[in-house]
Amino acid sequence: MLKRVRGGYKVYSKSTKKPLSKKPKSKAAAMKQLAAVEISKMKKKKQAPKLPKRGERAKKNKKYTKKKKSST
């Protein structure tokens, strides 16, 4: 999200409203940075491994599963 500030434009995150750029930039430079941020987010989504939900890891890994006692 671009915001006009004193001295130019700044890039801010949509959800947290935190600034993603330190110094005010020209509008063209701010647009380039915004595009770079979006590209970076897409790369992270593609590369991020899907972690199992809570408890699923223990079920798949024999090391962490409880052994059942056999009754004789």
SSE order: EEHH
Q: Profile the largest sheet.
A: 2 strands, antiparallel
Class of secondary structure makeup: alpha+beta
Task: Quote the average pLDDT.
Answer: 79
Low-confidence stretches: none
- Please report which band the strand proportion falls in: under 5%, 5-15%, 15-25%, 25-35%, 35-45% or over 45%: 5-15%
Q: How many β-strand runs? A: 2
Rounded radius of gyration (Å):
23 Å
**So what's the oligomer here?**
single chain
Strand order of the largest sheet: 1-2
Q: Whole-Å distance between the termini?
A: 68 Å
Please give the share of residues in helix. 25-40%
Shape: rod-shaped
Q: What is the count of helical runs?
A: 2
Entry summary:
The chain is built from 2 helices and 2 strands; from the N terminus they run ββαα. With 72 residues, it is of the alpha+beta class.
Characterize the structure shown:
By secondary structure, this protein is α+β, with helices and mostly antiparallel strands. It has a two-stranded antiparallel sheet with strand order 1-2. The protein is rod-shaped, with a radius of gyration of 23 Å. The relative contact order is 0.12. It has helices spanning 27-47, 56-60, and strands spanning 2-5, 8-11. The protein starts with a strand and ends in a 12-residue tail after the last helix. The longest helix is centred in the middle third of the chain and has 21 residues, at 27-47. It is built from 2 helices and 2 strands; from the N terminus they run E-E-H-H.
